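note to self — DONT lose this again. spent like an hour looking for the file last time. sequence + predicted structure for the chain T wanted, 225 res
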Amino acid sequence: MRNLRSSLLLILPLFAGCQTLADLEYKDPVKKPSQRLQGEISREGDQWLLRPCQEQRRFVLSDGEGQDNLKDLASLAADGQNSLYGDFKGQLDSSTQAGVDGQFNITRRYRVQGEGHGCDDPNYKRVRIQASGHEPEWSIAVTSKGLILNRPGQEALALPYLEEDLLQGRRNFSSAANGQQLELWVAPQRCQDGMSGSVQHLSAELRLNGQVMRGCAYYGGAQGD
C-alpha cells in the first residue's frame, strides 16, 4: 500500500506538467500592438503602398474587415488626384515580398485625401481635432490650450472651451466667450468632403450663434484614442 501511494505521488507532478504544457499550447496568441502611420500613398499594379512621412520604408496596405479604404483611394485616384495622403491606425506584419518592408493592416482610417496638407502639415502634432465645412466656409482646430475658429474674411478667433465625452465615441466642445456662443459636435462616422473628396472618420456639426453648419473632422496627432 505504501509503494502504491509513493507511485501516485511521483506520477501527479507529471500530470501537472502535462496540464501546464497544454495550457501553453492552446493559449490565444498575443495580439499585435496597433500603431498610427501617416504618409504618401502610391499604386503599383493592384497594390496600394504607404510610405510613412520622412521615411523610405514602404508597406502594402490591407483593409481590415468592414473597411473600404482601398476603394476610397481608388475613387480619389480616378478623380485625377495622383498624390495621395493617408492617416491610419493598424498593425504591421512582416512580408517576404520583394521591394516592400511589410504589410500594414488597417483597423481605423483617420483620413485619406488628394488635396491639402499631408506630411507637410506644421500643425498636425499640436491639434487634437481638426474640423471644417463649406457653404459657408469654416474650420476649427481644437488644441489642448483652446480652439481656433477660422472663417474667410475674418480674423482667426481663439476661444477657451469645455469638453464633454458622450456615448459611442461622440464629443462636444462648447464655448461662450468674446460674445460668441459656439458648440462643435463630432461623431464617429465616415464623412466625405463634397469639394475635395477627402474621406475622414468623423462627422462634424458647428453651431455658431444659432447658425448650424456641417462638415467633417479627424483626430490630429495630439489626440489620444
